[in-house]
Amino acid sequence: MATNFVQDGRMLDVTNSTSAKLTSGQVVVGSVLGVAMEDIAVGETGVLVIDGVFTVLKVSAAVINQGESLTWVTASSAFDDNAATAATDDITGATAFAAEAAGAGTASLAVKFTGVQGTVKA
Known about the structure:
By secondary structure, this protein is mainly β. It has no helices and 11 strands. The chain has strands spanning 11-15, 27-28, 34-36, 45-49, 52-57, 70-73, 78-81, 91-92, 96-98, 108-113, 119-120. The mean pLDDT is 93.
């Protein structure tokens, strides 16, 4: 193994610099989208998964096809389909895609997080 290897990069240690506790399973918005593996108190460090598949919230009205890239809607803390008009602070790009299809009226879906930075609509 290379002497300069640190970790495989699918999970990263992060410090909670927000004003609220991060809860296990919560989508965490930062340079990349990820999912908190454990509760992380304000100012504490915990593990964020940036590459994996998780069941997370989606915009209920969205119709999402398997494999479709997704938009993270900051206002609702949920994913929308790639045809959604991004609003300020929404994240689009290759950050995540649908691991399954999910129709209107469905509140969640399996999402593949990619560990890739997205574009924030300013």
